[in-house]
Specification:
Chain B: Belongs to the binding-protein-dependent transport system permease family. LivHM subfamily. The structure holds two protein chains of two kinds. By secondary structure, chain A is mainly alpha-helical. Helices cover 74% and strands 2% of the residues of chain A. Chain A is globular. The two termini of chain A are 29 Å apart. Chain B has a two-stranded antiparallel sheet.
Chain lengths: 360, 336
């Protein structure tokens, strides 16, 4: 229990689900051949960590931030620009990390000190404004960020797909640089999620929950709520930036669509809500369900849209078009906020019937 | 302070003039910086017109927050819906739009704007009943629900009208400028200013001179008290929400004509802009919203002229500066 910080999943089904997901992710390179499966698995790892860090904010402090993709993007761009400018070597990776992480933390500190002092609702609006300004900035400073095209780069020798570490005739599987990168992403994401679990179960995490439940009372008890909230904001930003670094390393690319766009922010929100706010475990479940659906249901929509088109139905082809994927996500989002405010994890823990913790 | 004798009139609330002087001072400060008086005048008129349009869109948001304590993250959707609905009227009557007669043009424009307002208002009714009613008093869920609503509305617009940009040409008689001396003032900007001022005056009159306005202002101060006096405040909420949505629709039509194009993504960009305006003005304050809109437009216009590079972040800088001065916006509404 030490490794889970004394906060086990508290539901047999949930434990089983988590074990299956983690084992499946760990074994993806061997179980599911092909680049798509590995891409999906890596994306699940990165997003599980990213969503867990967002859960620290939304689920544990109750503050809605719309700037989480900004920190994610800062991490992505920092590593991409460093590797693009300095060439594919480890010094560039280190440079990206030591510039990206402090930058994200500082920005989070500034936003936190500035907007967490006043009503929580300001925080949501101000993060939205700052994030959109950052997005415009990133696409305008094309000499640095590559504008709308983003930056593609090469990884250091060790992590390239061409590098064969263990040849095929030893185990029957080839372990190459790509698979090593996958395990790097898997391990670091896992460590970050465990660290977040540690944070939310520490006395500090208790204070965050107290602030979420009743900020005034927490303040009256003598906690400096602004300090705690800002600290949580910085921690979440650091994890988000790290997830951004992992994502860029995996994709060998950083651009506005993969790391900064508002639709990623919506994806994160959706994953947190589907998985279950304020549980951390919900992040793993939410990310898995969402990304599997995104990758495999979208092609199903394409088929359905075509079928509706051929059947000559009005309107349906447009509504079912794969590009309208977000429409259905939005409906799902509203429905899950309304009907399942505790998400999958909350449902599994409380057996469905009760709606405990439905309002804060 | 000494005791008040019974015959003394009630002490008048102090008028807070500093925020009103702010845009005036900003405009005057810009005269030497810009240099030529004629470009200064053009820029000032442009900012006033843009500010009025932003005000029309933002006023609903701030009123809804002030009265109902509901922050509608989907407010931008009403703007986009308004603009799209207007194309339904304007596209079939393209010929009368291109006719060079002010009255023919207005005869098409006015019904288009009214239809947009009606549709946005009706949509407001649906949104209030379906999305907001279940989550009154819960900020977190309100933000999540209305964000979801924004996505659904935007995607539905894409599904119905397609993802391409729809052109929306200005009517012939509103194109071009009035030339006074060496100052050029675009005709459409004058119209936008007139409509914006009209809306502002109408809102102020309703709020300050009618019984309805009295109830709304009382509701902002203390919801329970108004309810205790026997007024159905939920009806009042609904009415304000629908009015706010309809105004957003009107703003959407005006903005689309100003940019001469319609696209569903306009709701995203404008949402950020009106949030900044509403924060600057003080959540819930109509006067603050009016001044905030003008300030944002001035910074955008003057800033774009003087230091174009800065225009990207100028709104954020303005917001930071104002909140440093007054952490709750220009006019803080008392109860929140």
């Amino acid at each position: 229990m030490m490794i889970l910080s004394g906060d086990p999943p508290r539901s047999r089904v949930l434990t089983l689900l988590l074990v299956v997901i983690i084992l499946a992710l760990a074994a993806t390179p061997f179980l599911f051949p092909g680049a798509k499966a590995l891409n999906v698995a890596a994306k699940i790892c990165v997003f599980a960590a990213l969503v867990a860090s967002y859960d620290l904010l939304l689920g544990y402090t109750g503050s809605v931030s719309f700037a989480h993709t900004m920190f994610y993007g800062i991490g992505s761009y920092a590593i991409a620009i460093a590797l693009y400018g300095m060439g594919p070597n480890w010094a560039a990776v280190a440079t990206g990390i030591v510039t990206g992480l402090p930058l994200a933390a500082l920005l989070a500190l500034a936003i936190g000190l500035f907007s967490l002092r006043v009503a929580a609702i300001f925080f949501a609006m101000i993060t939205l404004a700052v994030a959109s300004a950052f997005q415009v900035l990133a696409s305008q400073l094309s000499w640095l960020t590559g504008g709308e095209d983003g930056r593609s780069f090469q990884l250091p020798e060790l992590l390239r797909p061409g590098t064969v570490l263990i040849s095929k005739n030893l185990f029957g599987f080839e372990i190459n640089g790509r698979i090593l990168t996958f395990y790097l992403v898997f391990a670091i994401s896992g460590l970050m999620i465990l660290a977040l679990l540690r944070v939310v179960n520490s006395p500090f995490g208790r204070v965050l929950q107290a602030i979420r439940e009743n900020r005034f009372r927490a303040e009256a008890l003598g906690f400096r709520t602004v300090f705690h909230l800002t600290y949580a904001n910085c921690l979440a930003a650091l994890v988000a930036a790290s997830a951004g670094i992992l994502n860029a390393l995996w994709l060998r690319y950083a651009g506005p669509d993969t790391s900064l766009s508002f639709s990623i922010m919506l994806d994160i929100l959706l994953m947190v809500v589907i998985g279950g706010m304020g549980t951390i475990y919900g992040a793993i479940i939410g990310a898995t369900i969402f990304i599997l659906a995104q990758n495999y249901l979208q092609s199903l929509m394409g088929v359905a849209s075509k079928a509706a088109d051929e059947a000559g139905l009005p309107l349906l082809p447009g509504l079912l078009h794969p590009d309208r994927w977000l429409l259905w996500l939005g409906l799902l989002f509203i429905a899950s906020v309304y009907f399942f405010p505790t998400g999958v994890v909350g449902r599994l823990r409380h057996g469905g019937g009760k709606s405990e913790g439905a309002s804060h | 302070m000494t005791d008040l004798a019974a015959t003394d009139p009630l002490p008048k609330p102090k008028r807070d003039l500093a925020p009103i002087l702010l845009p005036v001072a900003l405009a005057l400060l810009m005269i030497p910086l810009i240099g030529s008086t004629s470009s200064w005048l053009t820029l000032t008129v442009a900012s006033l017109a843009m500010g009025m349009m932003i005000f029309i869109m933002a006023s609903g948001l701030t009123l809804v927050f002030g009265l109902m304590d509901v922050l509608n993250f989907g407010h931008g959707a009403f703007i986009a819906v308004g603009a799209y609905v207007a194309t339904l009227v304007l596209a079939p009557f393209a010929a009368s739009i291109q006719a060079d007669s002010l009255w023919t043009n207005l005869a098409v424009l006015a019904p288009a704007a009214l239809l947009s307002m009606a549709v946005s208002g009706a949509l407001g009714l649906v949104v209030e009943r379906v999305l907001i009613l279940p989550v009154y008093g819960q900020h977190l869920k309100q933000i999540l629900m209305t964000t979801g609503g924004l996505i659904v509305a935007e995607q539905t617009l894409y599904a119905l009208w397609g993802p391409q940009i729809i052109p929306m040409p200005l009517p012939a008689s509103l194109r071009g400028s009035f030339i006074i001396g060496d100052v050029a003032i675009a005709k459409y900007r004058v119209l936008a200013m007139l409509i914006g001022l009209g809306v502002f005056i109408a809102i102020q009159l309703v709020l300050n001179r009618t019984k309805l306005g009295l109830l709304i202002r009382a509701g902002v101060e203390s919801r329970e008290m108004v309810e205790a006096l026997g007024y159905r405040i939920r009806r009042l909420f609904l009415g304000v929400f629908m009015t706010g949505s309809a105004l957003a629709g009107l703003g959407g039509v005006m903005w689309a004509l100003y940019r001469e194009q319609v696209h569903a993504s306009m709701s995203d960009d404008l949402t950020v802009l009106i949030f900044i305006v509403v924060i600057i003005g003080g959540l819930g304050s109509i006067g603050g919203c009016f001044i905030g809109a003008i300030l944002v437009a001035m910074v955008a216009n003057y800033g774009g002229f003087l230091v174009p590079k800065l225009a990207l972040v100028s709104n954020i800088l303005l917001m930071v500066a104002i909140l440093m001065w007054r952490p709750r916006g220009l006019y803080a509404v008392t109860s929140r």
